[in-house]
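Recap from last week: sequence in, structure out.
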Amino acid sequence: MNENINKEITVLGTLEVEGMKFHDIEGGFGEHKKAMLVKDIAKIHNRELKHVNELINNNIKRFKDGIDILDIKVSRSERPSYLKSLSLEMGYSNQSYANANNIYLLSERGYSKLLKIL
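Predicted structure tokens:
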């Protein structure tokens, strides 16, 4: 995985769709590519985040790192403080960030793959 890819992740704000708010995230998988937090995906599908993360972890071989999925908690990046501040900007508290084993970000392709196993 390209170690500089994480610096391209940008939180553009929030979007409201059918009364639910989601983070508008761009980058991480290439310039101007949309991405979505698994936290937001769990909310859309009325699932607990821990169950969606468990599904991903049990099927991690289906996802290509850097193409379908990025784990912004467990990164090989040299800038862990940047990734932590990015996670906080995306709605994680200091405590939830510390307690999380993984904070997954999915590309559109990764989201499609996740839908097949949901």
